[in-house]
Specification:
The protein is an alpha+beta fold and about 80 residues long. The protein is about 40% helix and about 10% strand. It has 4 helices and 3 strands. It has helices at about 15-25, 30-35, 55-60, 75-80; strands spanning about 15, 45, 50-55. Helix 1 packs across helix 2 (about 30-35). The relative contact order is 0.15.
């Protein structure tokens, strides 16, 4: 019987795609879509490796809409309210 993999005592600065997706709580395919549509940051290049900055991923996650909030991406909504 093998013991579970130990959890690091700290969050690494750089995350692989799989780690970044798990950090956010989604699968890799959804995470890739979120990168492409701008909801998540693009990775940094470390040599030839693509590495996601864990702080940028965390901040992007905090900027996602909260369930139940009204989200408007239409700049005319604010203009019409004035």
């Amino acid at each position: 019987m093998s013991s579970p993999m130990p959890t690091p005592a700290y969050l690494p600065l750089g995350l692989s795609l799989a780690e970044a997706a798990a950090y956010v709580g989604v699968g890799q395919t959804i995470f890739r879509e979120m990168v492409e549509d701008g909801r998540m940051p693009h990775p940094r290049m470390v040599g030839r490796r693509r590495v996601f900055d864990s702080e940028e991923v965390r901040l992007a996650f905090k900027n996602l809409p909260v369930d139940g909030e009204i989200v408007t991406d239409n700049p005319w909504d604010e203009e019409m309210a004035s």
